[in-house]
Here is the input.
Amino acid sequence: MSTQSTRLASRIMVAPSVIVLFIWMIVPLAMTLYFSFRIYRLLSPDRTGWVGFANYTWFFKSPEFWLAISNTLALVLGVLIITVVLGTLIALLIDQPVKGQGVLRILVIAPFFVMPPVAAMIWDNLFMHPQNGLLGAVSRAFGAEPILYMEQYPMASIITIVAWEWLPFATLILLTAMQSLSSEQLEAAEMDGASALNRFRYIIFPHLTRAITVVILIETIFLLGIFGEIFTATQGGPGSASTTLPYMIFKQAIVAKDIGRAAAGGIIAVILANIVAFFLMRSIGKNLDA
Amino acid sequence: MARAVTPRRKALNTVAAWSVALIIFFPVLWMILTSFKTEPSAVAMPPQLFSADWTLENYSEVWARSDYPRFFWNSVVISVGSTLLGLAIAIPAAWSMAFVPGKRTKDLLMWMLSTKMMPAVAVLIPMYLIFQRTGLFDTKTGLVLALMLMNLPIIVWMLYTYFKEIPGEILEASRMDGASLWKEIVYVLTPMAVPGIASTMLLNVILAWNEAFWTITLTTTKAAPLSAFIASFSSPQGLFYGKLSAASTMAIAPILILGWFSQKQLVRGLTFGAVK
Here is the structure.
């Protein structure tokens, strides 16, 4: 029961949020779209004008672009698979009666609060560095040559770092979901002689599908924009071996100072993100209503 | 728990769970240990643990020699500032969406969430140019604005899910008693909403503190927070492990502590209320 005046008041209260978000979405996006059709290089400011789709075709013809796309996909899918699978296993483990569950949760959640540059610093220097890193020491202890993680397997190394950061998130959400499962159901199944595997398959897993969908949706939003880890650990290299789409656009904008091309890359990124979002929202919408 | 658990099984579970937890936590622990080692000891091969030279010097040196205090202060101002500004804009919106929902409230919320889907890098150029032209580049004000906009959808959503749980009857009762809209907000809603607002604030301070795209691209030195500082510090690879670790430990310590306090709200907040 809202009167005319509360309706008006509520409009006024919602307005600031909507207006700033709308401006934040529309103005930069319109500018990006505009620049993407123009020649605009900060290093040669005299040359200006419309170039049609030249900036876009440059992207599609560039081998780096396709590498960046496949790297982005590898990053998103790799991290999703690792975090969901390991997260489920760890959540199952922690959900058991164990001593000191509170402290345990605190230890497991910690990586999530580590800022991306620090996460990259720890792994890049303290662990994966061939001379001084801990993993190099482990290799040597087994009589093997230290592995050049960032040089030989840059993308796998980045995936490891990011998966380490996001594993706690997946674990925590799956654990929260598991704890809302009634223990009577599990007990009944156990008494009827259902094996642990069957209890997981027919009771726990169906209960988790919603949480898994949520994990996938939210992680994907953040993973598509991963930047700090790559910037700190590999700078997209060696060569372009660990360049993702966001990092390639960043290089075009800040390093090559080619505004037009970077803008075209930005528009491509928006289109790709929308395709992903469309499918995600659809599959998740189904799951959330059910 | 009614399920019978043999002590043996509980012990096994405990060992297994603790091993996994320690493996996950180990990189952080190793960084903290390294931060207390002298530089030669920090890079010694094989790695030293019990035989290491322990020192506090890395901390005092990082704090005294570099511009570390300034980066730290920038992080505080940017994360707290963007969160408070975001709350100021979001609280009225979430309030009215929760208590005076219209036909389009759900659509509006979904639209807000969809703005998070836009990759930040797509608007990097305009932001960069706008910031350069308006003098916001490399200023704390600029970053407060950018991070506020980035997190606004999350703030509105979180507040909305919390406000939704405040029973509407209380509002009706206060309206019957003749409370004005303003009094209703100040005396009735606010006290009930404080826990929700507090956890929203906590989560967004964490997100803003750890943000590492805008903070790196929109600053150089003056307004750079810790995330940008660490990202540039680690360029000389394989050097100064002790100091690098000390700087990093100080960069994550406040957030680690805040985060541990807010782990329950974190799940709710980051899943937009979908998982409780």
Notes: Chain A has one domain: 54-289. The beta strands of chain A are 38-40, 48-50.
